[in-house]
Amino acid sequence: MDKKNLYMGMGMGIAACGLGAALFRPRRNKKVKSTVGKALRTMSEVAESVSNAMNW
User: Fold this and answer.
1) pTM of the model
2) In whole angstroms, what is the distance from residue 19 CA to residue 31 CA?
3) Which residue of 14, 22, 27, 42 has the smallest Cβ count within 10 Å?
């Protein structure tokens, strides 16, 4: 077994574990996503208004 096969197998195993973890994790509430999205949008608007006020 050469190192290329070893690294390929390790990469495939890590990818499979990641996929399995993503599939079987508990589902999040969509309300949380929309709240976070609104907060991020507000923060970007504030940053934009500050940069406009400073003439950047």
Assistant:
1) 0.42
2) 24
3) 27
